[in-house]
Amino acid sequence: MSKEQSCVLKAWEVTVRKTQQAKKRANSIFGTVSVAPQTDDDTTTTTDDIDDDSITIRSSIGELYHAERVLPNGDYYTGQWYDSFPHGHGKYLWTDGCMYIGDWYNGKTMGRGKFGWPSGASYEGEFKSGYMDGVGLYTGPSGDTYKGQWVMNLKHGHGIKRFANGDVYDGEWRRGLQESHGKYQWRDGSYYIGEWKNAMICGKGTFIWTDGNRYDGFWDDGLPRGNGTFKWADGSFYVGHWSNDPEEMNGTYYPSGDEGNPEWDPKDVFNNLSEYKICSGERVPVLPSQKKLSVWNSSKRVEKPRRMSVDGRVSVGVDRAFEKMNMWGTESGEGAADIDSTTRRDLDAEMMRLEAEGFIQSLRPTPAPMRLPRAGRKQGETISKGHRNYELMLNLQLGIRHAVGKQAPVVSLDLKHSAFDPKEKVWTRFPPEGTKYTPPHQSSEFKWKDYCPLVFRSLRKLFKVDPADYMLSICGNDALRELSSPGKSGSFFYLTNDDRYMIKTMKKSETKVLLRMLAAYYNHVRAFENTLVIRFYGLHCVKLTGPIQKKVRFVIMGNLFCSEYSIHRRFDLKGSSLGRTTDKPESEINSNTILKDLDLNFIFRLQKAWFQEFIRQVDKDCEFLEQERIMDYSLLVGIHFREASVAGELIPSGARTPIGEFEDETAPRLSRADVDQLLSDPTRWASIRLGGNMPARAERTMRRSDCEFQLVGEPTGEYYEVVMIFGIIDILQDYDISKKLEHAYKSIQYDPTSISAVDPRLYSRRFRDFIFKVFTEDN
């Protein structure tokens, strides 16, 4: 039986007209055929009940009707039904007491609706793909309410939160936390209006007490810090620099006229503010997107495990009645005469009509199902005693422990220009017997150099790196791991055992570039918290003493792929085509393999708020790199697929288990519950940021066979739910004379626009054009 004939029989409702002579043969072909199930009181029609003049096979596909279902596990649904899914308006009641009333689309809550929890909590508003998304009102079981904007179950945008204790917050939210600008009023009438960061008062703002006193100035972690003014209701005021540390506190008191309180202590403000706490609100125990629909089975048909179609989608009820038919005979062609030429023409005409009316797509070849890539081993070789770089690792750990341990905490992030001077470095000698400042060790004598120590100490504070954790990761009992081979630049890479930090050996030219651009880099990452540019934590040098006098320079960076999610696919994207494919055969590609531009077979679709922020940040980052004359950087992308079958096949987001079909409960699979659990825990929301643990949809693409260097393939409409991690790396290559010569040489042989070595301005424009084709808004 040909593929085309099989698709015709299994996909469409047709009316087969036969002669009396053909009907006898049809009895042996059709056997028993199920009439389209619409209720639990399904009936079965045999060929004996079929009219002599025709055989009619009916399916519920394409019909929208009202249904009432009591599902096998006790769940209840009543409302509109389409193609084995709730579709339209309906009510679903789970056995645990949760209930949803509202709009559905292909089995997902989509549109306006109301979700209720057994605790009494409720959400009424807009839904999208099962998530609370849009504008809605949430009422908690203890009386908390939030009315405002939502994105994927999180408060995101403007909203008003009324707490059960009487406090009210009216302002901006990001990823479920107060952010940007807002007003918080306590139940006694005192209020703060100003800037917020991660649910904490941070930035510039004003606190006004009910007695008329007020503080105007800067805040950090919920307390005054920086320049500020405290005013009394009588007109007296205090101006100065505020800090919770008495040694940093200084200012001047100005009484109103002859009256005032010269004995007043600024610490009274801090003591008073300790009584004003920011409520954290209630945690939603179960999110609407975590609620699964039960499986419905007809009482009149045999249950069997669902099967997958050739493109990975789950077969739905439409083809059940046809599965045992063999109207066209065997592969050898026997039995083909059982259907006459008139019937063939009727089938072909019916298929063409449905295709022309948009009910089906043409029977073009479909891509093979995608599978999870083979899991790679843990990256790197542990550097143990006897390894060629064992002493270098010991020297590095000794130097880091000494440099970080002796440094005083950063007082202010405002640095003097002299701190960025390339000559600002500290040499320390480490003899084996130790000194007054260095411990004894078993390695050979070496010298240690810290470049711009104050700047990198401030960067670690800016990136919220705890000094103790930093030292423990790099200098703890666990050894570093060396990656199996150096990169294209000839540098070696080392990973800490907890995967949080990556150490890269540096060429002298790269060190000079980093020191030259360090001030601009510092100002950029300070101005843009969500920058995608790689994070640098330290720049050091080890100089071995003795006859070799070898210098090893290295930079410590954040490991982009340090995540609680396993990374299934990795891409290094530049926007150029020459040489931008992996050189590994398919059999050697695993989850650790870094693929390139021409290997990419996805378009990534981000939620509107994330996409707009992504565009803004990529533009800002590229402008910064262009100004510093940097080129040859790339966007490193990691993908975690959220749903896969037990056999390892990726499950498209449209291939849900249909209600009305049997699901093999013995075959566990990954689901989006892991992301939902992350979203349901406010303490973990901070781990979701631009470029970090971002939920998205990946649409599969296919390149045309007649276009060898097509950078972005054609969309197939096949979507996968993913979690994404990405950032801009390799930002230390400037457009020096070697790159200019490379550009001139390769331009003679290849298309100048296809090569990587181009002017920074052209590189930035080409990079952005490509990235904005690969990342789009999810409509």
Features:
779 residues, alpha+beta, 17-stranded antiparallel β-sheet, globular
Secondary-structure topology with pairs:
Layout: H1 3-11, E1 15-17, H2 20-30, E2 33-34, E3 44-45, E4 54-56, E5 64-70, E6 76-82, E7 85-93, E8 99-105, E9 108-116, E10 122-128, E11 131-139, E12 145-151, E13 154-162, E14 168-174, E15 177-185, E16 191-197, E17 200-208, E18 214-220, E19 223-231, E20 237-242, E21 250-254, H3 267-273, H4 341-356, E22 381-382, H5 390-406, E23 425-430, E24 446-451, H6 453-462, H7 467-475, E25 481-482, E26 493-495, E27 501-506, H8 508-527, E28 536-544, E29 551-558, E30 569-573, E31 594-595, E32 602-606, H9 608-627, E33 634-641, H10 673-680, E34 694-702, E35 714-729, H11 737-749, H12 760-774, E36 775-777
Parallel strand pairs: 30-31, 32-36
Antiparallel strand pairs: 1-4, 2-3, 5-6, 6-7, 7-8, 8-9, 9-10, 10-11, 11-12, 12-13, 13-14, 14-15, 15-16, 16-17, 17-18, 18-19, 19-20, 20-21, 22-25, 23-24, 24-28, 25-26, 26-27, 27-29, 28-29, 30-33, 32-34, 33-35, 34-35
Helix pairs in contact: 5-7, 9-12
